[in-house]
Amino acid sequence: MTEPVRRRGRPPRARQDAGPGMRERILDAAREDFAERGYDKASVRGIAKAAGVDSALVHHYFGTKEQVFAAAIEVALAPALKAPDALEDGPLEGVGERMTRFFFGVWEAPATRAPLLAIVRSALNNEVAAGVFRKLVATQLLARIAQRLDLPEGEAELRASLAAAQLVGTAMIRYVVRAEPLASADLEWIIGRLAPVVQGHLTGP
Amino acid sequence: MTEPVRRRGRPPRARQDAGPGMRERILDAAREDFAERGYDKASVRGIAKAAGVDSALVHHYFGTKEQVFAAAIEVALAPALKAPDALEDGPLEGVGERMTRFFFGVWEAPATRAPLLAIVRSALNNEVAAGVFRKLVATQLLARIAQRLDLPEGEAELRASLAAAQLVGTAMIRYVVRAEPLASADLEWIIGRLAPVVQGHLTGP
Fold first, then answer.
1. Model ipTM?
2. Which of A121, A130, A172 lies at the smallest CB-CB distance from B169?
3. Is residue A10 scored above 80 in pLDDT?
4. Residue ranges of the alpha helices (H) in A42-186?
5. Residue A178 to residue B123, Cβ atoms within 8 A
6. Which of A127, A197, A201 should be substituted to probe chain B, the one whose Cβ sees the most B Cβ atoms within 10 Å?
7. Under an 8 A CB cutoff, do A172 and B176 touch?
8. Is the peptide bond before A79 cis (omega within 30 degrees of 0)?
9. Domain B78-203, what fold?
10. Over the stretch B32-63, which tens digit does the pLDDT of each residue have?
11. Domain boundaries, chain A
Protein backbone atom coordinates (compact mmCIF):
# COMPACT_ATOMS: atom_id res chain seq x y z
CA MET A 1 0.00 0.00 0.00
CA THR A 2 2.75 2.41 0.87
CA GLU A 3 5.01 1.12 -1.96
CA PRO A 4 6.04 4.29 -3.80
CA VAL A 5 5.52 4.69 -7.56
CA ARG A 6 8.73 3.63 -9.35
CA ARG A 7 10.75 6.73 -10.25
CA ARG A 8 13.60 7.37 -12.62
CA GLY A 9 17.04 8.02 -11.12
CA ARG A 10 18.87 6.52 -8.20
CA PRO A 11 16.62 4.41 -5.99
CA PRO A 12 16.42 4.91 -2.24
CA ARG A 13 19.17 3.10 -0.31
CA ALA A 14 16.76 0.79 1.45
CA ARG A 15 15.74 -1.03 -1.73
CA GLN A 16 19.34 -1.85 -2.51
CA ASP A 17 19.66 -3.84 0.66
CA ALA A 18 16.62 -5.96 0.01
CA GLY A 19 18.81 -9.07 0.22
CA PRO A 20 16.82 -12.18 -0.60
CA GLY A 21 14.94 -11.79 -3.87
CA MET A 22 17.49 -9.26 -5.13
CA ARG A 23 19.08 -11.74 -7.50
CA GLU A 24 15.67 -12.63 -8.94
CA ARG A 25 14.73 -8.96 -9.28
CA ILE A 26 17.89 -8.23 -11.27
CA LEU A 27 17.29 -11.30 -13.45
CA ASP A 28 13.69 -10.22 -14.13
CA ALA A 29 14.89 -6.77 -15.13
CA ALA A 30 17.65 -8.29 -17.27
CA ARG A 31 15.22 -10.58 -19.10
CA GLU A 32 12.92 -7.67 -19.84
CA ASP A 33 15.75 -5.45 -21.01
CA PHE A 34 17.21 -8.13 -23.30
CA ALA A 35 13.73 -8.92 -24.61
CA GLU A 36 12.78 -5.32 -25.32
CA ARG A 37 16.04 -3.92 -26.61
CA GLY A 38 17.97 -6.95 -27.82
CA TYR A 39 21.38 -8.03 -26.62
CA ASP A 40 23.30 -5.26 -28.40
CA LYS A 41 21.34 -2.38 -26.93
CA ALA A 42 20.73 -3.83 -23.48
CA SER A 43 23.13 -2.61 -20.80
CA VAL A 44 24.07 -3.38 -17.22
CA ARG A 45 23.23 0.24 -16.41
CA GLY A 46 19.74 -0.08 -17.90
CA ILE A 47 19.15 -3.36 -16.11
CA ALA A 48 20.33 -1.91 -12.79
CA LYS A 49 18.03 1.07 -13.25
CA ALA A 50 15.01 -1.11 -14.02
CA ALA A 51 15.75 -3.27 -10.98
CA GLY A 52 16.19 -0.17 -8.84
CA VAL A 53 19.78 -0.90 -7.84
CA ASP A 54 23.32 0.32 -8.56
CA SER A 55 25.18 -1.05 -11.58
CA ALA A 56 27.88 -2.15 -9.15
CA LEU A 57 25.43 -4.51 -7.49
CA VAL A 58 24.59 -6.13 -10.84
CA HIS A 59 28.30 -6.60 -11.50
CA HIS A 60 28.72 -7.95 -7.97
CA TYR A 61 26.00 -10.59 -8.42
CA PHE A 62 26.66 -11.62 -12.04
CA GLY A 63 29.78 -10.02 -13.55
CA THR A 64 29.77 -8.78 -17.14
CA LYS A 65 26.81 -8.13 -19.43
CA GLU A 66 27.51 -11.50 -21.10
CA GLN A 67 27.32 -13.22 -17.71
CA VAL A 68 24.08 -11.42 -16.82
CA PHE A 69 22.71 -12.60 -20.14
CA ALA A 70 23.82 -16.19 -19.52
CA ALA A 71 22.13 -16.19 -16.11
CA ALA A 72 18.95 -14.63 -17.52
CA ILE A 73 18.61 -17.09 -20.36
CA GLU A 74 19.32 -20.01 -18.06
CA VAL A 75 16.31 -18.93 -16.00
CA ALA A 76 14.18 -18.30 -19.10
CA LEU A 77 15.16 -21.62 -20.64
CA ALA A 78 14.62 -23.53 -17.40
CA PRO A 79 11.18 -24.88 -18.40
CA ALA A 80 12.52 -26.00 -21.80
CA LEU A 81 15.57 -27.61 -20.20
CA LYS A 82 13.28 -30.06 -18.43
CA ALA A 83 12.65 -31.73 -21.80
CA PRO A 84 15.11 -34.60 -21.18
CA ASP A 85 12.87 -35.69 -18.29
CA ALA A 86 10.31 -36.66 -20.95
CA LEU A 87 12.67 -39.47 -21.87
CA GLU A 88 12.38 -41.01 -18.43
CA ASP A 89 8.69 -40.48 -17.81
CA GLY A 90 7.70 -43.64 -19.67
CA PRO A 91 8.68 -46.23 -22.26
CA LEU A 92 11.10 -45.24 -25.03
CA GLU A 93 8.48 -45.89 -27.73
CA GLY A 94 6.35 -43.02 -26.41
CA VAL A 95 9.17 -40.50 -26.15
CA GLY A 96 8.32 -38.78 -29.46
CA GLU A 97 4.87 -37.82 -28.28
CA ARG A 98 5.96 -36.93 -24.74
CA MET A 99 8.73 -34.66 -25.97
CA THR A 100 6.57 -33.00 -28.66
CA ARG A 101 3.78 -32.41 -26.15
CA PHE A 102 6.24 -31.03 -23.61
CA PHE A 103 7.82 -28.69 -26.16
CA PHE A 104 4.53 -27.16 -27.30
CA GLY A 105 3.33 -26.95 -23.72
CA VAL A 106 6.23 -24.61 -23.00
CA TRP A 107 5.55 -22.50 -26.12
CA GLU A 108 1.78 -22.32 -25.67
CA ALA A 109 2.00 -20.93 -22.12
CA PRO A 110 2.27 -17.12 -22.30
CA ALA A 111 4.48 -17.01 -19.18
CA THR A 112 7.15 -19.17 -20.78
CA ARG A 113 6.68 -18.09 -24.42
CA ALA A 114 7.75 -14.45 -24.01
CA PRO A 115 11.14 -15.20 -22.41
CA LEU A 116 11.77 -17.95 -24.98
CA LEU A 117 11.03 -15.57 -27.84
CA ALA A 118 13.43 -13.02 -26.38
CA ILE A 119 16.22 -15.57 -26.13
CA VAL A 120 15.69 -16.96 -29.60
CA ARG A 121 15.72 -13.46 -31.10
CA SER A 122 18.91 -12.55 -29.22
CA ALA A 123 20.64 -15.77 -30.24
CA LEU A 124 19.76 -15.19 -33.88
CA ASN A 125 21.05 -11.63 -33.86
CA ASN A 126 24.13 -11.49 -31.74
CA GLU A 127 27.22 -13.68 -31.78
CA VAL A 128 27.87 -13.46 -28.03
CA ALA A 129 24.25 -14.30 -27.29
CA ALA A 130 24.39 -17.15 -29.80
CA GLY A 131 27.49 -18.52 -28.04
CA VAL A 132 25.82 -18.51 -24.64
CA PHE A 133 22.73 -20.15 -26.13
CA ARG A 134 24.76 -22.80 -27.98
CA LYS A 135 26.66 -23.78 -24.86
CA LEU A 136 23.55 -24.06 -22.71
CA VAL A 137 21.62 -26.10 -25.29
CA ALA A 138 24.59 -28.39 -25.94
CA THR A 139 25.37 -29.18 -22.31
CA GLN A 140 21.92 -28.99 -20.72
CA LEU A 141 19.74 -30.35 -23.49
CA LEU A 142 21.42 -32.32 -26.28
CA ALA A 143 24.00 -34.11 -24.16
CA ARG A 144 21.38 -35.09 -21.59
CA ILE A 145 19.01 -36.43 -24.24
CA ALA A 146 21.81 -38.17 -26.10
CA GLN A 147 23.10 -40.08 -23.10
CA ARG A 148 19.67 -41.64 -22.57
CA LEU A 149 19.42 -42.93 -26.16
CA ASP A 150 20.70 -46.36 -27.06
CA LEU A 151 22.93 -45.06 -29.87
CA PRO A 152 26.62 -44.35 -30.51
CA GLU A 153 27.43 -41.06 -28.76
CA GLY A 154 28.09 -38.95 -31.86
CA GLU A 155 25.00 -40.17 -33.64
CA ALA A 156 22.77 -39.70 -30.60
CA GLU A 157 23.50 -35.98 -30.41
CA LEU A 158 23.05 -35.51 -34.15
CA ARG A 159 19.71 -37.32 -34.07
CA ALA A 160 18.56 -35.29 -31.06
CA SER A 161 19.54 -32.14 -33.01
CA LEU A 162 17.39 -33.13 -35.99
CA ALA A 163 14.44 -33.81 -33.68
CA ALA A 164 15.02 -30.39 -32.10
CA ALA A 165 15.21 -28.86 -35.59
CA GLN A 166 11.73 -30.17 -36.47
CA LEU A 167 10.28 -28.77 -33.25
CA VAL A 168 12.18 -25.48 -33.29
CA GLY A 169 11.40 -24.88 -36.98
CA THR A 170 7.70 -25.40 -36.29
CA ALA A 171 7.86 -23.00 -33.33
CA MET A 172 9.65 -20.36 -35.47
CA ILE A 173 6.91 -20.52 -38.10
CA ARG A 174 3.98 -20.74 -35.67
CA TYR A 175 5.04 -18.37 -32.86
CA VAL A 176 7.78 -16.07 -34.21
CA VAL A 177 6.98 -15.43 -37.89
CA ARG A 178 3.34 -16.46 -37.23
CA ALA A 179 2.85 -17.70 -40.78
CA GLU A 180 -0.40 -19.38 -41.77
CA PRO A 181 -1.63 -22.05 -41.91
CA LEU A 182 0.63 -23.24 -39.06
CA ALA A 183 0.00 -20.20 -36.86
CA SER A 184 -3.64 -21.12 -36.30
CA ALA A 185 -3.44 -24.86 -36.92
CA ASP A 186 -4.99 -27.14 -34.31
CA LEU A 187 -2.30 -28.01 -31.77
CA GLU A 188 -3.39 -31.62 -31.41
CA TRP A 189 -3.15 -32.08 -35.19
CA ILE A 190 0.42 -30.70 -35.11
CA ILE A 191 1.39 -32.93 -32.19
CA GLY A 192 -0.14 -35.92 -33.96
CA ARG A 193 1.95 -35.27 -37.07
CA LEU A 194 5.21 -34.41 -35.31
CA ALA A 195 5.30 -37.04 -32.56
CA PRO A 196 6.20 -39.89 -34.98
CA VAL A 197 8.82 -37.68 -36.68
CA VAL A 198 10.51 -36.91 -33.35
CA GLN A 199 10.21 -40.57 -32.39
CA GLY A 200 11.83 -41.59 -35.70
CA HIS A 201 14.72 -39.18 -35.21
CA LEU A 202 15.40 -40.41 -31.66
CA THR A 203 14.81 -44.14 -31.89
CA GLY A 204 14.26 -45.01 -35.58
CA PRO A 205 16.62 -47.10 -37.73
CA MET B 1 40.12 2.04 -65.19
CA THR B 2 38.94 5.63 -64.95
CA GLU B 3 36.06 4.71 -62.58
CA PRO B 4 36.49 7.14 -59.67
CA VAL B 5 36.68 5.92 -56.09
CA ARG B 6 33.21 6.00 -54.56
CA ARG B 7 32.80 9.14 -52.48
CA ARG B 8 30.36 10.18 -49.78
CA GLY B 9 27.81 12.84 -50.63
CA ARG B 10 25.70 13.45 -53.69
CA PRO B 11 26.88 11.47 -56.70
CA PRO B 12 27.59 13.06 -60.05
CA ARG B 13 24.48 13.57 -62.20
CA ALA B 14 25.66 11.16 -64.89
CA ARG B 15 25.43 8.08 -62.61
CA GLN B 16 21.82 8.87 -61.78
CA ASP B 17 20.83 8.53 -65.42
CA ALA B 18 22.44 5.14 -65.81
CA GLY B 19 19.05 3.72 -66.88
CA PRO B 20 19.27 -0.04 -67.40
CA GLY B 21 20.81 -1.75 -64.41
CA MET B 22 19.68 1.05 -62.11
CA ARG B 23 16.89 -1.03 -60.60
CA GLU B 24 19.36 -3.85 -59.88
CA ARG B 25 21.88 -1.45 -58.39
CA ILE B 26 19.29 -0.07 -55.99
CA LEU B 27 18.19 -3.60 -55.05
CA ASP B 28 21.79 -4.64 -54.38
CA ALA B 29 22.27 -1.62 -52.15
CA ALA B 30 18.96 -2.32 -50.41
CA ARG B 31 19.84 -5.94 -49.72
CA GLU B 32 23.17 -4.92 -48.24
CA ASP B 33 21.63 -2.18 -46.13
CA PHE B 34 18.88 -4.47 -44.78
CA ALA B 35 21.46 -7.21 -44.16
CA GLU B 36 23.93 -4.99 -42.34
CA ARG B 37 21.63 -2.76 -40.34
CA GLY B 38 18.39 -4.73 -40.09
CA TYR B 39 14.98 -3.57 -41.24
CA ASP B 40 14.46 -1.04 -38.46
CA LYS B 41 17.67 0.89 -39.03
CA ALA B 42 17.82 0.62 -42.81
CA SER B 43 16.53 3.69 -44.65
CA VAL B 44 15.63 4.74 -48.17
CA ARG B 45 18.15 7.55 -47.77
CA GLY B 46 20.95 5.15 -46.82
CA ILE B 47 20.06 2.82 -49.67
CA ALA B 48 20.01 5.70 -52.16
CA LYS B 49 23.39 6.87 -50.92
CA ALA B 50 24.94 3.41 -51.25
CA ALA B 51 23.53 3.06 -54.76
CA GLY B 52 24.82 6.54 -55.66
CA VAL B 53 21.38 7.98 -56.48
CA ASP B 54 18.81 10.40 -55.08
CA SER B 55 16.26 9.10 -52.55
CA ALA B 56 13.59 10.33 -54.96
CA LEU B 57 14.78 7.83 -57.53
CA VAL B 58 14.46 4.95 -55.04
CA HIS B 59 10.92 6.09 -54.24
CA HIS B 60 10.23 6.41 -57.96
CA TYR B 61 11.31 2.85 -58.69
CA PHE B 62 9.94 1.09 -55.62
CA GLY B 63 7.83 3.33 -53.38
CA THR B 64 8.09 3.07 -49.59
CA LYS B 65 10.80 1.41 -47.50
CA GLU B 66 8.46 -1.56 -47.03
CA GLN B 67 8.11 -1.88 -50.80
CA VAL B 68 11.88 -1.65 -51.33
CA PHE B 69 12.24 -4.41 -48.76
CA ALA B 70 9.61 -6.58 -50.46
CA ALA B 71 11.40 -6.20 -53.80
CA ALA B 72 14.81 -6.92 -52.25
CA ILE B 73 13.68 -10.06 -50.46
CA GLU B 74 11.87 -11.30 -53.55
CA VAL B 75 15.21 -11.15 -55.38
CA ALA B 76 17.12 -12.71 -52.46
CA LEU B 77 14.54 -15.46 -52.06
CA ALA B 78 14.39 -16.17 -55.80
CA PRO B 79 16.67 -19.24 -55.63
CA ALA B 80 14.67 -20.68 -52.70
CA LEU B 81 11.38 -19.98 -54.48
CA LYS B 82 12.36 -22.44 -57.18
CA ALA B 83 11.84 -25.27 -54.65
CA PRO B 84 8.37 -26.22 -56.00
CA ASP B 85 10.07 -27.17 -59.28
CA ALA B 86 11.63 -30.08 -57.39
CA LEU B 87 8.15 -31.55 -57.27
CA GLU B 88 7.95 -31.76 -61.03
CA ASP B 89 11.49 -32.87 -61.77
CA GLY B 90 10.73 -36.53 -61.20
CA PRO B 91 8.39 -39.05 -59.58
CA LEU B 92 6.48 -38.07 -56.43
CA GLU B 93 8.22 -40.77 -54.38
CA GLY B 94 11.57 -38.99 -54.81
CA VAL B 95 10.33 -35.52 -53.91
CA GLY B 96 11.60 -35.67 -50.31
CA GLU B 97 15.18 -36.13 -51.40
CA ARG B 98 14.97 -33.67 -54.32
CA MET B 99 13.51 -30.94 -52.12
CA THR B 100 15.94 -31.56 -49.24
CA ARG B 101 18.88 -31.54 -51.64
CA PHE B 102 17.63 -28.39 -53.32
CA PHE B 103 17.11 -26.61 -49.99
CA PHE B 104 20.61 -27.33 -48.69
CA GLY B 105 22.11 -26.48 -52.08
CA VAL B 106 20.73 -22.96 -51.68
CA TRP B 107 22.04 -22.66 -48.11
CA GLU B 108 25.47 -24.13 -48.80
CA ALA B 109 26.25 -21.67 -51.63
CA PRO B 110 27.79 -18.52 -50.10
CA ALA B 111 26.21 -16.31 -52.79
CA THR B 112 22.69 -17.36 -51.79
CA ARG B 113 23.29 -17.93 -48.08
CA ALA B 114 24.13 -14.35 -47.11
CA PRO B 115 20.95 -12.79 -48.56
CA LEU B 116 18.86 -15.60 -47.05
CA LEU B 117 20.38 -15.01 -43.62
CA ALA B 118 19.60 -11.31 -43.90
CA ILE B 119 15.98 -11.97 -44.75
CA VAL B 120 15.48 -14.53 -42.04
CA ARG B 121 16.97 -12.20 -39.44
CA SER B 122 14.78 -9.30 -40.59
CA ALA B 123 11.65 -11.45 -40.59
CA LEU B 124 12.38 -12.67 -37.07
CA ASN B 125 12.94 -9.15 -35.75
CA ASN B 126 10.50 -6.83 -37.39
CA GLU B 127 6.75 -7.17 -37.80
CA VAL B 128 6.61 -5.37 -41.18
CA ALA B 129 9.45 -7.52 -42.52
CA ALA B 130 7.75 -10.64 -41.13
CA GLY B 131 4.55 -9.66 -42.94
CA VAL B 132 6.32 -9.27 -46.28
CA PHE B 133 8.11 -12.58 -45.74
CA ARG B 134 4.91 -14.42 -44.73
CA LYS B 135 3.06 -13.22 -47.81
CA LEU B 136 5.84 -14.20 -50.19
CA VAL B 137 6.34 -17.64 -48.67
CA ALA B 138 2.58 -18.31 -48.57
CA THR B 139 1.86 -17.32 -52.17
CA GLN B 140 5.10 -18.26 -53.90
CA LEU B 141 6.13 -21.36 -51.98
CA LEU B 142 3.47 -23.12 -49.89
CA ALA B 143 0.57 -22.61 -52.27
CA ARG B 144 2.61 -23.79 -55.25
CA ILE B 145 3.83 -26.90 -53.43
CA ALA B 146 0.36 -27.62 -52.03
CA GLN B 147 -1.39 -27.53 -55.39
CA ARG B 148 0.91 -30.24 -56.71
CA LEU B 149 0.20 -32.64 -53.83
CA ASP B 150 -2.62 -35.13 -54.02
CA LEU B 151 -4.20 -33.98 -50.77
CA PRO B 152 -7.16 -31.87 -49.60
CA GLU B 153 -6.16 -28.21 -50.03
CA GLY B 154 -6.01 -27.24 -46.36
CA GLU B 155 -4.05 -30.33 -45.38
CA ALA B 156 -1.58 -29.96 -48.26
CA GLU B 157 -0.43 -26.52 -47.09
CA LEU B 158 -0.17 -27.65 -43.48
CA ARG B 159 1.90 -30.67 -44.47
CA ALA B 160 4.14 -28.54 -46.69
CA SER B 161 4.62 -26.20 -43.70
CA LEU B 162 5.75 -29.05 -41.44
CA ALA B 163 8.23 -30.21 -44.11
CA ALA B 164 9.47 -26.62 -44.36
CA ALA B 165 9.73 -26.47 -40.55
CA GLN B 166 12.07 -29.50 -40.50
CA LEU B 167 14.31 -27.95 -43.15
CA VAL B 168 14.19 -24.38 -41.82
CA GLY B 169 14.82 -25.53 -38.24
CA THR B 170 17.88 -27.47 -39.37
CA ALA B 171 19.15 -24.44 -41.32
CA MET B 172 18.65 -22.19 -38.28
CA ILE B 173 20.71 -24.51 -36.10
CA ARG B 174 23.41 -25.24 -38.71
CA TYR B 175 23.85 -21.86 -40.42
CA VAL B 176 22.41 -19.17 -38.13
CA VAL B 177 23.10 -20.28 -34.55
CA ARG B 178 25.86 -22.63 -35.84
CA ALA B 179 25.38 -25.09 -32.98
CA GLU B 180 27.33 -28.32 -32.93
CA PRO B 181 27.14 -31.13 -33.82
CA LEU B 182 24.84 -30.03 -36.69
CA ALA B 183 27.04 -27.12 -37.78
CA SER B 184 29.85 -29.40 -38.94
CA ALA B 185 27.84 -32.55 -39.63
CA ASP B 186 28.34 -34.24 -42.99
CA LEU B 187 25.80 -32.79 -45.41
CA GLU B 188 25.05 -36.12 -47.08
CA TRP B 189 24.29 -37.66 -43.70
CA ILE B 190 21.84 -34.84 -42.97
CA ILE B 191 20.19 -35.18 -46.37
CA GLY B 192 19.95 -38.94 -45.91
CA ARG B 193 18.15 -38.48 -42.56
CA LEU B 194 15.86 -35.63 -43.61
CA ALA B 195 14.79 -36.77 -47.08
CA PRO B 196 12.43 -39.49 -45.72
CA VAL B 197 11.04 -37.04 -43.14
CA VAL B 198 10.22 -34.46 -45.83
CA GLN B 199 8.82 -37.25 -48.02
CA GLY B 200 6.63 -38.43 -45.14
CA HIS B 201 5.28 -34.94 -44.51
CA LEU B 202 4.44 -34.39 -48.17
CA THR B 203 3.16 -37.77 -49.30
CA GLY B 204 2.88 -40.03 -46.21
CA PRO B 205 -0.36 -41.32 -44.69
1. 0.80
2. A172
3. no
4. 44-51, 55-62, 65-77, 95-108, 110-125, 127-137, 143-146, 153-171
5. no
6. A197
7. no
8. no
9. Tetracycline Repressor; domain 2 (1.10.357)
10. 888 777 788 889 999 999 999 999 999 999 99
11. 13-64, 78-203
